[in-house]
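Protein modeling request. Please complete all fields; requests missing the sequence field cannot be processed.
Requester role: graduate student
Desired output: 3D structure, token encoding
Chains: 1
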Amino acid sequence: MSNETEKYFSLLLADNHSGSRELLRNLIAILKTDYEKLAYPGLVLDELAKELSEFQAITHFIDDFRNYDNKSVCDRQQFLQKKLTEIDNSDFRIFRNIAKIFNTRKQVVTISNSSTLQYVLTMLAKDEKIDKVWICESRPALEGRIAASILAEKNIPVRLVPENMLGYAVKNCDVALLGADRILGNGNIINKSGSLPLAVLCNFFAIPLYVLADQTKFSSMTNFTPLEKPVEEVWMGRPENVEVTNIYFEELERDLITEIISD
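Delivered output (263 residues):
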């Protein structure tokens, strides 16, 4: 990784707690303040695209932003601000679409940490459509705890459960909501590991599962190869003859999803 990428984007690239939308917001904020300082912006964008390739929304954004590399500072700033506005507007449209399903107060189960889900759940709670939100803690980074804390600060009833209690959570809920980091061309989604067992349980217990994703998450890709993450996040100091797998994202088949709600 180049010195410039390390200098300006190290905290962003080390963030394993935030969802793709929040990462995109943070990326745009850095570009708004520091892009003009970069001596090799093209190289930095290439490295960011590689390091953040698991996030379709960021891949889509970087492809669009490259078109502004040779334009004026004013044009770039306007583009970046427009993208931030688009994120906010798309979140509202997703909320408006999913709100039609919440005709009564519901207990919701979800996993991981998604800014879109936080916004939608907050708006549903304001409309008195949320009874309680059950959130899996989402090992190994435990970003579910972050999501639970954010919702609790907004006085939304929350119950945090470890993944081994996922079945108990699903049986006590009315609906499941998930975000998505990528929607493949075949309709399958890529999301935080743990989404697949949640979907399987919802299917078994006849609980509807909705995926919330804006249009930037849709991809023409049909294949997904999970990337291995540091095993030390799962077990520091493990015995040498014990294998550990740490994969952040997994594929969820379209047949397990009740509906994909977009903007």
